Amino acid sequence: MVTALVVGASRGLGASIVEEYNEAGKTVFATSRSEAPESKSNIIYIGGIDVARERAGLELVNNLKKLTANLDIVIITAGYFATESFDEPSWEKELQMYTTSSIAPVFLIHHLAKAGLLGNGSKIILVSSESGSITLRHESEGGGNYGHHASKAALNMVGKLLSLDLKEQGIAIGIVHPGFMRTEMTKNVGFDQFWDDGGAVTPGEAAKSLVKFIDDFDISKTGEYWAPSGPRWDQ
After folding, report:
1. Residue 20: which of 7, 6, 32 has the closest Cα?
2. How far apart are CA 191 and CA 203, in angstroms?
3. How many CA atoms lie within 13 A of 50 on its CB side?
4. SS3 (DSSP) at 71
5. For the whole model, what pTM was predicted?
């Protein structure tokens, strides 16, 4: 039976991915930053995993090793988005965005691999965004939101570097843009005004296309950046 881990599963895309795998009969370990919901069916929740904390990887491994010997799929969806402008940048918010998006995945994957929970055939999916693309950023969109965009660009490079480190072990790393989504996160930063014109999809729709992509993803595509739902407008 396929065993999956979804990091950042309390809402949005992460929660929808968990439901997709649960309906398919797969065992899913789902993390949340706060207290874990009650486990049900094939879903086992692990609470108190705040990826912005250095010990998150160790704490996650300590929980998982009591529950499973290996992970076939790991999806890291945890993210944080706070708006900024050139006139009002935020040191604290940028640190949190970089830590959550591009520093935490290195340490989470390091601890999972060193604990023997990942092996030949394991697939790791890093949920990134088109917003990290330098090429796609157009002058008409303006500047600002430095931490959000740059932390996603950093995550893309992290994914590439991890793919080089783990390829000999047969562990594949995928970097994905799941699509512009109708989530609380995009709403909270005012992007709901762009949902209709931007072709925003629901987390459920994005999860279905992502799960299908993961089914076909393998080591031949490791280190590559993909948009399973196709390109979507994303600030």
Report:
1. 6
2. 15
3. 8
4. coil
5. 0.90
